[in-house]
Amino acid sequence: MTSIGTGYDLANSIFSPDGRNFQVEYAVKAVENGGTSIGIRCKDGVVLAVEKIVTSKLLKPNANKRIATVDRHLGVVYSGMIPDGRHFIDRARDEARAWRDTFKTPISTADLASRMGGYMQAYTLYQSVRPFGITAIIGGFDSTDEPRVDGEVGTGPSCGAGGKVAGKTHGGPFLYMIEPSGLYWGYYGAATGKGRQAAKAELEKLDLGGPGGPSLTLEEAVKEAARIIYVAHDDSKDKEFELEMTWISGPDGPTKGLHQEVPKALREEAERLAKKAQEDDEDDEEEDVEGKEKMEE
Amino acid sequence: MFRNNYDNDSVTFSPQGRIFQVEYAAEAVKQGSVVVGIASNTHAVLVAIKRNAEELSSYQKKLFPIDEHVGIAIAGLTSDARVLSNFMKQQCLGHRLTYGRSMPVRTLVEMIGSKAQINTQHYGKRPYGVGLLVAGVDDQGPHLFEFQPSGMTEEMVAFAIGARSQMARTYLEKNLDKFADCGREELIRHGLRALKESLVQDRELTVDNTSVGVAGLVASDQDGTTKVEPFTVYDQQEVSAWIDSVADDKEGGASAAEGEGGTMEVDS
């Protein structure tokens, strides 16, 4: 992966003899240097969180937001080159608005991921542009109402083409992650940026997938998200950081279907627990070491 | 001379994921003379050192009013700054026309951020070679933003960009906690003291080479409401009292100068 593409890596859209586009791989490197972003899809919503490294004491605390609202029910967080992320957000907002104009309905999370995946991919096709230096995580809560069929009369057909399936559910929480290549997948839990390895390991321990769906609730997910960002942060190497978190619930939940910042009180509680969990962990490690020493004696 | 093959345009990533053209553009900012900005709870100030090409020539302007409530300080390529300044003026005017009120400072700064980002992603374009400090007031109070050629924009409590600006930033970091409650005059004095830290030896603040810009919120006489003090640039005799007030001011002077001595750059 870390090989250098002698001669074939100097321009975008150029294939190397073994079929790689090195400029896209280098764009991924830009992502891997950025602060960690994560997304968690849980039972009743989605949580997005990002580790914002404080590069200067002179930055105004909590003033520079990194998680953007793209439509009422959609949030986007990203790792990598922040100006590229802002461009991505601008485009995502345009797409969401254009969808509303055309179809008279909010864009679904899957459709936005598709549109933005296509947009990112287009930036890998030409020598006249460079790929995006970001990986974006899109979280959304799609309306759980049954979509209206065009020209529907009464309750519509009960079976057949365009018919309704008894017991079929609609909408719900969704999470997608888009890479610089334009590749995107749906996720139960997504992580990108510098601390993605540690974050992924923690996400995999949570009950997010499975046949019965996730058992994790939104509030639990907020606390897990905070803890994971704290775990992914390397105290010894990295500078201090700020934690920014947003969430989206269904219409019956705390955000009423909207993408919003996690209330300050809940965020601070989550951070307190995250710090505590980390300290407990460190104590355990120390005990382990002491235990081993005693064994040796 | 060539550092590598990856630094010839702004559409090529290096194997480490860096874009050298953008990093070089950031170097252009360091060629400009230093500018300092600070925001308190009531005011946002910009102070700058102006340069003259030769003894008898005039000094290059560093501070520009954008709209009634916003002004900028520039470091780097002046002609690029003028392009951005014109753009910002037009956007502010357009916003007033459509919405009947002044543009929020963050909105304005993000617009130039988006504009600058495009220059870093398309072949045949180059990044802007200028950094800005944008100071202004809106409904949320006074603000100070930094703009970089990469398109990065961040809200700061106080900041300095330009040649030898690290010294000024060190001063600002030391006095960071004082700024929020500073009055107008004290905030300007802090700005000038930070500016002095970044001066080359044997240079001083004079009425010719120093500019001060202020925007603020002032309590109205009649009722308790606040009024905007429009962004105003002060030059020449208007700044002499402020310069005198920080003359021979040893506070933070010698002590703050040490530490960052490694980043010596010659101020032409």
Automatic annotation (TrEMBL), chain A:
<protein>
    <recommendedName>
        <fullName>Proteasome subunit alpha type</fullName>
    </recommendedName>
</protein>
<dbReference type="Pfam" id="PF00227">
    <property type="entry name" value="Proteasome"/>
</dbReference>
<dbReference type="InterPro" id="IPR001353">
    <property type="entry name" value="Proteasome_sua/b"/>
</dbReference>
<dbReference type="InterPro" id="IPR023332">
    <property type="entry name" value="Proteasome_alpha-type"/>
</dbReference>
<comment type="subunit">
    <text>The 26S proteasome consists of a 20S proteasome core and two 19S regulatory subunits.</text>
</comment>
<keyword id="KW-0539">Nucleus</keyword>
<feature type="region of interest" description="Disordered">
    <location>
        <begin position="248"/>
        <end position="297"/>
    </location>
</feature>
<dbReference type="GO" id="GO:0005634">
    <property type="term" value="C:nucleus"/>
</dbReference>
<feature type="compositionally biased region" description="Acidic residues">
    <location>
        <begin position="279"/>
        <end position="290"/>
    </location>
</feature>
<feature type="domain" description="Proteasome alpha-type subunits">
    <location>
        <begin position="8"/>
        <end position="30"/>
    </location>
</feature>
<dbReference type="GO" id="GO:0006511">
    <property type="term" value="P:ubiquitin-dependent protein catabolic process"/>
</dbReference>
<dbReference type="GO" id="GO:0019773">
    <property type="term" value="C:proteasome core complex, alpha-subunit complex"/>
</dbReference>
<feature type="compositionally biased region" description="Basic and acidic residues">
    <location>
        <begin position="258"/>
        <end position="278"/>
    </location>
</feature>
<keyword id="KW-0963">Cytoplasm</keyword>
<keyword id="KW-0647">Proteasome</keyword>
<comment type="similarity">
    <text>Belongs to the peptidase T1A family.</text>
</comment>
<dbReference type="GO" id="GO:0005737">
    <property type="term" value="C:cytoplasm"/>
</dbReference>
<dbReference type="InterPro" id="IPR000426">
    <property type="entry name" value="Proteasome_asu_N"/>
</dbReference>
<dbReference type="InterPro" id="IPR029055">
    <property type="entry name" value="Ntn_hydrolases_N"/>
</dbReference>
<dbReference type="InterPro" id="IPR050115">
    <property type="entry name" value="Proteasome_alpha"/>
</dbReference>
<dbReference type="Pfam" id="PF10584">
    <property type="entry name" value="Proteasome_A_N"/>
</dbReference>
TrEMBL record, chain B:
<dbReference type="InterPro" id="IPR035144">
    <property type="entry name" value="Proteasome_alpha1"/>
</dbReference>
<dbReference type="InterPro" id="IPR029055">
    <property type="entry name" value="Ntn_hydrolases_N"/>
</dbReference>
<feature type="region of interest" description="Disordered">
    <location>
        <begin position="246"/>
        <end position="268"/>
    </location>
</feature>
<comment type="similarity">
    <text>Belongs to the peptidase T1A family.</text>
</comment>
<dbReference type="InterPro" id="IPR000426">
    <property type="entry name" value="Proteasome_asu_N"/>
</dbReference>
<dbReference type="GO" id="GO:0019773">
    <property type="term" value="C:proteasome core complex, alpha-subunit complex"/>
</dbReference>
<keyword id="KW-0647">Proteasome</keyword>
<feature type="domain" description="Proteasome alpha-type subunits">
    <location>
        <begin position="6"/>
        <end position="28"/>
    </location>
</feature>
<keyword id="KW-0539">Nucleus</keyword>
<dbReference type="GO" id="GO:0005634">
    <property type="term" value="C:nucleus"/>
</dbReference>
<dbReference type="InterPro" id="IPR023332">
    <property type="entry name" value="Proteasome_alpha-type"/>
</dbReference>
<dbReference type="Pfam" id="PF10584">
    <property type="entry name" value="Proteasome_A_N"/>
</dbReference>
<protein>
    <recommendedName>
        <fullName>Proteasome subunit alpha type</fullName>
    </recommendedName>
</protein>
<keyword id="KW-0963">Cytoplasm</keyword>
<dbReference type="GO" id="GO:0005737">
    <property type="term" value="C:cytoplasm"/>
</dbReference>
<comment type="subunit">
    <text>The 26S proteasome consists of a 20S proteasome core and two 19S regulatory subunits.</text>
</comment>
<dbReference type="InterPro" id="IPR050115">
    <property type="entry name" value="Proteasome_alpha"/>
</dbReference>
<dbReference type="InterPro" id="IPR001353">
    <property type="entry name" value="Proteasome_sua/b"/>
</dbReference>
<dbReference type="Pfam" id="PF00227">
    <property type="entry name" value="Proteasome"/>
</dbReference>
<dbReference type="GO" id="GO:0006511">
    <property type="term" value="P:ubiquitin-dependent protein catabolic process"/>
</dbReference>
